Amino acid sequence: MKLVYFFDDKGYSNGENDYILPDEQGNYNLPNNATDIKPSNSLYTPIKFDGEKWIGTSKEQWQKENPVEDNNELPPTQNNGVGTDEELRKMFASMQVQLVQANMMVMQLTQQNARLSQEMVVINQKLDGGSE
Question: Residue 61 CA to chain centroid, in angstroms?
Fold first, then answer.
């Protein structure tokens, strides 16, 4: 799995990220509007990907352009909540893997149960045939 960061047709971050899976050969095919280069936590909106790196506004510049009346208000950063989103995506991916593993175990146990049932039928037939 690889984490990618999306941007619009002008290169501006839309704040979205997601995990992609490799193809059959193990290669990652990035969408045209995504990169695997993580934006710096120190960048403030607007944040733009120039094809090689993320460019954004400094905290000082953002605060100057967006004066905050209430000091409790946090300025929007690229990664405001992304850590939490990233953690949730990892947890979701892990849960998907666990679900697949659990389904495989259920299938194996079902097959084992079927084999044991067949063996019981054979044993019962032998017992019934031997008592006559």
Answer: 33
